[in-house]
Amino acid sequence: MSIDFESLKDKAVVAAQTGVTKAKEITETGIAKAKELADTGVAKAKELTEIGKLKVNNSAEQEAIRKAYSELGKLYYAERASAPEPAYADICQRITDALARISYNNERIADIKAAGQITDEEVEAVGTENVCGEDAPCCCQEEDQGEGSCCCQDEDKPQE
User: pLDDT tens across 20-73, in order?
Assistant: First the structure.
């Protein structure tokens, strides 16, 4: 049996060249696909960034609207609280009542401070505590809360 080394060499060269060509094609296809995926990812990131910026802008606009509503209400109350239009009478009355309660509470605070010789610093030191002993506002202090409706109490424990 004789081996034709020239023929084997030619076949090996052709196989190697075919392999190199295929490797180049696969590499070029892979690079193109990777570039396409990267471009898609960058585009998606830009879109998401734009959406995020727009949402932040919307939040700022909502805050501007809230402030404008507040200013509008304060202006209306200042100008029309004594004779509001019927649609606004209940709201104006609630504001008037709340302002009266605040005024009364401030008078009581002044009286208690004067009677007990309490300083403003002493009041500030305990001013954030509520009846539940927590450092947050508590619904237990609201007059119109029904029995057992305090958000600060345990559900199993009766309200005092």
Answer: 999 999 999 999 999 999 999 999 999 999 999 999 999 999 999 999 999 999
Please check whether residue 62 is in contact with residue 54, taking contact to mean a CB–CB distance below 8 angstroms. no
Predicted TM-score (pTM) of the model is 0.49
Q: CA-CA distances (angstroms) from residue 45 to 31, 109, 117?
A: 21, 57, 63
Residues 4 and 76 occupy one common structural domain: yes
Structural domain including 60 reads 1-80
**Residue partners of 153: CB distance under 8 A and separation at least 6:** 132, 140, 159
Q: Is residue 133 part of a domain?
A: no
119 within 8 A of 109, measured Cβ to Cβ: no
Do residues 113 and 73 both lie within one domain? no
DSSP labels for 112-135?
Answer: HHHHHT--HHHHHHHTT--TTSSS
**For the segment 70-117, what is each residue's pLDDT rounded down to a tens digit?**
999 999 999 999 999 999 999 999 999 999 999 999 999 999 989 988
Domain count, the chain: 2
DSSP class of residue 157 equals S
Same domain, 21 and 48: yes
